[in-house]
Amino acid sequence: MSYLGVGVSPGNVPVYHGTSLKVIDRRVRLAELVLRILTCGLALLCVVLVATDSQTKEFFSIQKKASYTDLKALVFLVVANAIAAAYSFVQVVRCVVSMVRGNVLYNKPLAWLIFSGDQAMAYMTVAALAAAIQSSVFAETGQPELQWMKTCDMYAKFCNQVGEGVGSAVIACISMVGVSCISAFGLFRLYNNKGKSDARW
Amino acid sequence: MSYLGVGVSPGNVPVYHGTSLKVIDRRVRLAELVLRILTCGLALLCVVLVATDSQTKEFFSIQKKASYTDLKALVFLVVANAIAAAYSFVQVVRCVVSMVRGNVLYNKPLAWLIFSGDQAMAYMTVAALAAAIQSSVFAETGQPELQWMKTCDMYAKFCNQVGEGVGSAVIACISMVGVSCISAFGLFRLYNNKGKSDARW
């Protein structure tokens, strides 16, 4: 029983005696890796699509340029997804090293660190996405009650590219939420072990 | 070992042999109850504050009324918090019954149901809050680049009350995230038990 224990390695976790359980564990780790790669790639795609997006229009000889920096929500989306992409890249490396070496130390403090990081990333990307979608809706439809005009009529190309970026962020976000559930599983199943095994993987 | 097993009751979980572990378990359950009550109360407060908020102004003999329905993000905030309050109320009742009876069945399907519900509520309240904050920032500061005017200069009383509602929603949201971590703990520690005990609590 190691309810309060620290330094439990994953070697202590798979006290499985059935082959099917090992298979399930391998599938969970593979799902984690795939989801992290998906998060990393799509969050990066979102950053590139939104941050490089701009459109210039001329109104009576005055040039006006639309850029993601015009909307704080888009800046938040870019920053949040850049952080999520960098974080996911580090985690992908950790997952690959763990799978290749097979006997990586996986203690409770590390599991808590990964769990906390994943939770923070998941909620951050959800918040950034919600704010960006809210702003995009205003830009697309306007808000007549508040005299907020539509801007996507003028900057159609800019808005379309932002839409693609938001689309990538949606899938990245769903993957991140999935990853956070897997890391919660990875952490909390370390609790309530009745005993320890010396097996390593 | 019940990695794939269903129908594991919480009686199987506390295979604790130390009193301190029982104390910790009681504290976790108490923390869950307190957080759920906090979520329920503050989400309800947010609903009342935002949904009852309105202010009428007269512009050249034309009356204009500001209401939360003018902003879809505030409607989303009210709906999300109403759902979270109702859900938390049901969960508070479940927690109290579980604590009073002491031998409530707590099997894996139920634990999965609670975990899924808590995750959905946590992400929903975070998304609603982020969208509402984004809209509130536009209303408070405007967005000169897009010719979106400030509206809080005209409807100061309305905006203040929305601000109080958003404040309640922030704390409700943090509590909900805490609750979702506790239910993840409650679910995933059911996995990887090496044996079963007949103890009930």
Automatic annotation (TrEMBL), chains A, B:
Its main location: membrane. It holds the Pfam family CASP_dom. GO terms for cellular component: plasma membrane. It is found in: Cell membrane. InterPro entries: CASP/CASPL, CASP_dom. The chain crosses the membrane at residues 33-51, 71-90, 110-133, 169-191. Keywords: Cell membrane, Membrane, Transmembrane, Transmembrane helix. Residues 26-174 form the Casparian strip membrane protein domain. It comes from the Eukaryota. It is a multi-pass membrane protein. Homodimer and heterodimers. Belongs to the Casparian strip membrane proteins (CASP) family. NCBIfam families: A_tha_TIGR01569. This is CASP-like protein. It comes from Linum trigynum.
